Amino acid sequence: MKINELTDSQIHSLDRVKDDWLAHGLATGPADRAEAEAGVADAYRAAGLEPPALCIWLDSPMAGAIGAWMLAGPEGPRPRGEGHVRAQVDAQIRAQADAQNRGRSVTGTGDRVWTWGRDQAGELVRDRVRDQISDHVVEQVRVLLREEFGGRAGAADEHQVWAQILDRVHSDGFGERVRDHVRAQVRDQLGTEIPRSIPGQHDVEWLAAWDYFRAHWSVAEADRLGGIMRVARSAGRWWPFEHAVILTERPTTLHRDDQGRPHRETGPAIAYRDGFAVWSWHGVRLPREPGRTRPTINRTGYDFESDALVVRTDYSDDEAWRAVVDLLNQPDGQSEVGTHVVDDRAFSGASPDEVVLSTLAGEPGLEAVFLADAATMKGDHTLLAVSTRCEELDDEIDGDNAEELGREFRLPPPLVNLVHVNLAIGHSDFWGFAYEAAHDPDNILRL
To answer: N or C, which terminus of the chain has less Cβ within 10 Å?
Structure first.
């Protein structure tokens, strides 16, 4: 008889593989450089490429991103911090160039170093080394699931089991959170787009799935990901070029809360030995080191889904504020309007980041907070909607058609409850509303 879900034994095996990969994702301290470089060689061979002749090691994902930007043939605005990383990359290219030419220096000036390095590097080959092989694994897995679980129900059973496996390996979400946090922090600090990388140790969810299929289902195509797995067990994020590779160290520290989310109340949740760091509050990335001086906002007694959080930060016009509150409490004709208004002079002059931090301290799950600032007390009384999720707005961050949006937009008071409810129930995301507002000449959401 055909079944349409994993057996208890299969689930146990999957959980063992997932836990093993989670341990690699949590690993801190120096990379095993020899093992990582051997894994790179395996990954290149699996993709039909010669192993890279040039291996460059850098101390953090930020340094790696700058190095990759340099080797890719820098275009557009220079990333912040380029000078410091350039010296490290320059020294390694020079040493390896001289070694490959048996001690005869081919790199006199800095320009010659980079000409040689870029000639050696070639094009980025991430798609060939990872994505194309992963796609083949997915195809083979789907065929296997269809044969094993198909029966007359066919595709329905196949998709059900596939979803069960992916839900299981993604249940913790740790690797994805760290991967997104680090990528977004790098982008924020460098101020420019960066070449796409392979996440290394923080690709844990997908690697757990592929490793499970390789070890327990004999999916032959997954063996071709053995090199990528070898690197992930040994090092951090990396950038593969045709004839060169940039590899990075693992974090020196990584802190989590009791639900496994990146979190630290004082100091960075994730830190690297060159000083690059990521701050996170219960899984929500903060744009910079928090300096919380405003009180925690207590949401006790307010409904998570129906009561929008509005914080007054301007106290210049009490009459205008009363008008704002009246507009917030006007019925919308569709549902009961709920608003949690914080009218506390402790928030006078507070920045959006300060309000976000006070919000997250009281309710980490809240998607957005609405500020009644100085602009709110004038004109149409528009409020400032602020996302508590820094990384949420990096939509299609690696895509060719990425659109960079701010974390804030303005909206009239009657829309506050509508936006909050749609975010709280997961019907919409902040990015969608920000996108609509970005196409208004005044950056105001008008629905």
So the answer is: N
